[in-house]
Amino acid sequence: MEWVLVVLGSYLIAIIGGHYFTRFILKYLPLENQGQGMKRAGAIIGVLERALIISFIILGEYSLIGFIVAAKSIARFEELKERNFAEYFITGTMASTLFAVIVGIFLSFYLGGP
After folding, report:
1. For the chain, percent helix, then strand, then coil, each to nearest 5?
2. Could you tell me which of 8, 31, 36, 50 has the C-alpha nearest to residue 89?
3. What's the confidence (pLDDT) of residue 35?
4. CA distance 14 to 102
5. What is the mean pLDDT of residues 3-28?
6. Residue 48: its pLDDT value, please?
7. Which of 45, 42, 41, 53 lies closest to 13 in space, CA to CA?
8. Domain membership flag for residue 35
9. Which residue range is the domain that position 16 belongs to?
């Protein structure tokens, strides 16, 4: 039963902590004209991204982490042509991914995973 709490706690840490960590990093990269996308869509995508990364790490499917980055890049392909947005986007993606990978690695070690 203890491992269930550790797993759930790890997901919460990665999802919520990763949100604040990513926002902290991105506040140093002000982006003007962020576009007219859905409100809070980036935050929701980040939550899903971090949950998937932790799941992939627990399952030992590290190569699937690249799938997330590729999917995000394809969805934003046209916007990535603008340098300021590209740097903002890549910094946010890397910060979010880094946070989730760190939590996932610790969780994997705790569970005695791959």
Report:
1. 75, 0, 25
2. 31
3. 56
4. 9
5. 87
6. 86
7. 53
8. no
9. 2-28+40-111
User: Could you give the residue ranges of the DSSP H alpha helices within 64-113?
Assistant: 64-75, 83-111
Using CA atoms of 27, 101, 58, 86 in order, give the dihedral in degrees to the nearest 10.
Answer: 60
Residues across the chain: 114
In this structure, are residues 90 and 44 in contact, taking their beta carbons and an 8 Å threshold?
A: no
Q: What is the pLDDT of residue 33?
A: 52
Q: How confident is the model at residue 99 (pLDDT cuts 50, 70, 90)?
A: very high
State the pTM of this model: 0.76
Judge whether 34 lies within some domain: no
From CA 91, how far away is CA 13, in angstroms rounded?
20
Token readout for 30 is 């002000």
The rounded mean pLDDT for the chain is 85
Confirm whether 33 is domain-assigned. no
Let me know if residue 50 belongs to a domain. yes
The count of structural domains within the chain is 1
CA gap 54, 75 in Å, rounded = 22
Q: Structure tokens of 31?
A: 């982006």
Model pLDDT, residue 105: 93
